[in-house]
Structures are given as C-alpha cells and as structure tokens.
Amino acid sequence: MRRNAKIIQINGFRGLLTALFIITCLAAGFIAFPGFVAMNIWNYFAGSNVPQINLYQGILLWAIIFLTYFIATKQRVAVSFATPKELNEEELKTLMERVKMQSQARMINKMILKNLEENEKISQDASDHEINKETKL
C-alpha cells in the first residue's frame, strides 16, 4: 500500500451528485468549450472548399492542438500531484526556530496591546475623575 496516499471520500447520494457535477464542469470547461471554439474557428476559416466539422471533431482538433503544443515545447506538465519530500534535520531545526520566534513575537505583541489598553483605560479614568472634580466645584 502506498504511503501518504490521498483519499477522496464521497458520502451518500448528495456526495455522488457533487462529484458528478464537478467532473461535468471540468469536462465542459477544459474539453468541450475549447473544442467548441476550435470548431467555430475551423468552420469560419474553412470556406467552401473544406467541409464543416461538428463538436466531436472540434474536440479532437483541440486535443491535436494541445498535444502538438505540449510535445513541441517539451515542457513539464504545469499541474502535477506528488507528495512533498520530508525535511532533513537542519531544515526542521530552522523551521522550529522560526516558529518559536513567531510565537514569541505574537506573545510580545499581545502584551504590548494589553498594556496600551490598560494605560488608555487609566488615562480615561483619570480624565473622568478630573471632570467629576470640576463639576463638584
């Protein structure tokens, strides 16, 4: 069994419908629509000497264009699924130091904000006390 395998869980009929909806939208967006565009472009520029094509043939034309581009550029696939490598000891130690520094900085920020709020409250109470003294006179 593969270690770190990804599991997709589909619960019930509603989950099945959601998965079907997602697959349909992906197929429409990445296969059918570009095929429709390829079909319309072909039919527009074909003229009277070349026969018109339908949607299925437009999808095949889109696949040919995509695969030709992919082979000609010799680039890697832009989307891939892989598990990340594990960190070595040095990287893990550096990461833990950064986490500690960030947590300490967060704690110091909270203390500073709390102190500022207390000082503001004390100054507000002092000014209220001064106002009360003046009104009594």
Keywords:
0% strand, elongated
Label the structural class. mainly alpha
Note the total helix count. 3
End-to-end separation? 86 Å
| Total E-strand runs | 0
**SSE topology string:** HHH
Characterize the main sheet: none
Envelope shape: elongated
Global Rg: 32 Å
Question: In terms of per-residue confidence, which ranges show pLDDT below 50 for 5 or more consecutive residues?
Answer: none
Helix percentage? over 70%
Q: Which whole number gives the mean pLDDT?
A: 84
The percent range for strand residues is under 5%
Brief rundown of the structure:
The chain has 137 residues and is an all-alpha fold.
Give an overview in words.
The chain contains three helices and no strands. With 137 residues, the chain is mostly helical. α1 packs across α2 (55-73). It starts with 11 loop residues before the first helix and ends with a helix.
Topology:
Layout: H1 12-46, H2 55-73, H3 89-136
Helix pairs in contact: 1-2
